[in-house]
Amino acid sequence: MTPVFEPGQFDALARRDFGRAPQAFRHTLHQRSMFDDAALADVLDRYPRDKLGVFTMGDDPVDWRSWRRGRAGDLPGAELLKSVAEGRIWLNLRAANAALEDYDALAGEMFGALQAEIPGLKTFRRDVGLLISSPGAQVFYHLDVPRVTLWHIRGQKRVWLYPARAPYVTDAALERIVLKETAEQFDYMPDFDAGAAVFDLEPGDLLHWPQYAPHRIVNGDSVNVSLSCEFLSPAALVSANAVYADALARRRWGLTPKRRGDWHPASLAKFALARTAKMMGLEPSPPEPLPPSFVVDPRAPGAVGPLAG
Ligand SMILES: [Fe+2]
Ligand 1 centre from 308 Cα, in Å? Predict the structure, then answer.
């Protein structure tokens, strides 16, 4: 098997900055036949259909409320792929590594390679999501609570990465997301682009960015295939729980918390507080998922057809 990374990329500087600044590397996964059309159609047939994320969206990067969830029905994988190629569809096979043995093996290889290149890196709660999306489709401005590596496989896309601080994301906005009071998408202003790092991804490119860094993505004029690999490290877990405790302090107790470094004693105390709150069942229930409002139909404009009934 070809090594996951082209050699010689992870020098002392790259290792020091891993997760602290936006970084691009080169990988080799795009050369594997498991990402050609026939293999992707097969994956779409094997992946649990009820877990398949199906979305469409408008053109305006500010209008994140145009994000709509749909259903794929029982369309065969090959028809779904055709709908992606000709329509305006975003397919998300979240945690493909938990559902499919070959993706589980792939996840082991990817995270194993990362940990081999970054001494001291420990990853857990690993989630390898397969993204298959239409020419011109976009993902609105949002942030993810775990750390993310984006492994680009097919097509071209542009990624904007924004600093993980105000005004791009305020502490209060981050707390709302960690507390699951709101979706991961939140308000974006085109002015923010002046502060963004912009990457034009080609097959074989890998991006990593600091935890909570907002980002948005617009596909080029091609079908896009990527792997979004989320994970937690010990520091990322402490941080997410500290933010959770801040959220409780602000919402429930009317305090004005201050965020500290991941290993600051205050962060560790907040981590313990958040874990206790979760164990006591104080965790709020997650918001209702967006109700489906369309069905994938290769004959409809954008492959977005009306829901029956
Ligand atoms: Fe993301």
Answer: 31
Give the Cβ contact number of residue 120 at 10 Å.
Answer: 8
pLDDT in tens, 238-286: 888 887 887 887 877 777 777 777 778 777 777 777 777 777 776 666 6
> Which residue, among 233, 3, 35, has the nearest Cα to 109 in the 3D structure?
3
The kind and range of the H/E element at 141 are strand 138-142
- DSSP symbols for 167-191: TTS-HHHHHHHHTTSS-SB----GG
For the chain, which domains are there?
Answer: 12-232 (2.60.120.650), 234-281 (no CATH)
Assess whether pLDDT exceeds 90 at residue 117. Answer: yes
Question: From ligand 1's centre to the CA of 212, what distance in Å?
Answer: 9
Q: What is the pTM of this model?
A: 0.92
Q: Which helix (H) or strand (E) holds 158?
A: strand 157-161
**Residue of 245, 250, 236 whose CA lies nearest to 269:** 245
Distance CA 55, CA 70 (A): 6
Residue 214 Cα, ligand 1 centroid: separation in angstroms?
Answer: 8
Q: What is the pLDDT of residue 282?
A: 66
